[in-house]
Amino acid sequence: MSNDSNSAFEPRIIAFVCNWCTYAGADLTGTSRLKYATNVRIVRFPCTGRIDFMLLLKAFAGGADGIIVSGCHPNDCHYTSGNFHARRRWMVFRGLLDTLGIDIRRIRYSWVSAAEGAKWADLVNDTVATIRELGPYTEYKKVADYLGKEVENE
């Protein structure tokens, strides 16, 4: 898609984040008054290890254009190894994305600590820029069919 057709496009980004690290880092971004895109909605989990990756598909079926999954750095997980479990599930989930035809660039997986507010801002801004370039996600019906649910976006 050309950038002209996407100039007014504001992507809807859903961020699934760890309560202990990334959520605190996002909070630091705000309290530090760092500039970052405001079209990201955060869903807070106790740990990224608790995220069912089918939620990512449900987010796409519900109209999300892009997704961020972010938690503690390796060996810093509040629950010891939750981030490693999430990372392993992510590697398997990537294969499903290929099967469904979802561009891997629509999902960002990152580690952001509570002290990395600037990294969170950069992650959000970079993700929004990438999704703007890709354009709106239009295959939500295909994902909804896979999930067996009605699409309400029409």
Task: Characterize the structure shown.
Helix content is 41%, strand content 15%. It is an alpha/beta fold and 154 residues long. It has a single domain (13-136), classed as Rossmann fold (3-Layer(aba) Sandwich), CATH 3.40.50. It has a four-stranded parallel beta sheet, sandwiched between helices. Strand 1, helix 1 (22-31) and strand 2 form a beta-alpha-beta unit.
Total number of distinct structural domains: 1
Taken in chain order, the helices and strands follow as EHEHEHEHH
Shape: globular
Sheet with the most strands, sense and barrel status: 4 strands, parallel
Count of individual helical segments: 5
Protein name: Hydrogenase iron-sulfur subunit
Domain F420-non-reducing hydrogenase iron-sulfur subunit D: 13-135
Keywords: Iron, Iron-sulfur, Metal-binding, Oxidoreductase
Pfam families: FlpD
Topology (SSEs and partners):
Blueprint: E1 13-18, H1 22-31, E2 40-45, H2 54-61, E3 66-71, H3 82-100, E4 107-111, H4 117-134, H5 140-147
Parallel strand pairs: 1-2, 1-3, 3-4
Helix pairs in contact: 1-4, 2-5
At a glance:
The chain has 154 residues and is of the alpha/beta class. The protein has 5 helices and 4 strands. The protein is globular, with a radius of gyration of 15 Å.
Write out key terms for the chains shown:
single chain, about 150 residues, alpha/beta, Rossmann fold, four-stranded parallel β-sheet, 5 helices, 4 strands
